[in-house]
Amino acid sequence: MLAHLHDFDAAPSRGVTLPDGRNVFIVRVHGQISAFVNLCPHQQVPLNLPEGSFLEAGGELIQCGMHGALFLPESGECVFGPCQGCFLEPVAVSIDAEGNIHLARE
User: Fold this and answer.
1) 13 pairs with which residues across the strands?
2) Number of independent structural domains in the chain
3) Which CA distances in Å does 40 have to 8, 67, 88, 90, 97?
4) If 41 and its partner were Cys, which of 57, 72, 75, 86 is the partner (CB 3.0–4.6 Å)?
5) Does the pTM of the predicted model rise above 0.90?
């Protein structure tokens, strides 16, 4: 299990480490869960904002803490910044009946 839906009640984003050691982050925007590898496509740096969040102040878009690039949470597409038109690498997750978030089985 990577996280639980209740983990997003207080903060709508969080970073996690996969069993293979990759750093990813999970966001909940408008009730939808998305997960991505924690690397900005511009310079391959982590996206974390200084306070550990992954969303801009309005909570609608993913923001790179290094460059300010903005990404759509549903697709990972960069819609503003130096990597506009590029995409974050998605991580497939699933949510079970108890609200546990897991890596999706391929």
Assistant:
1) 27
2) 1
3) 22, 9, 7, 12, 32
4) 86
5) yes
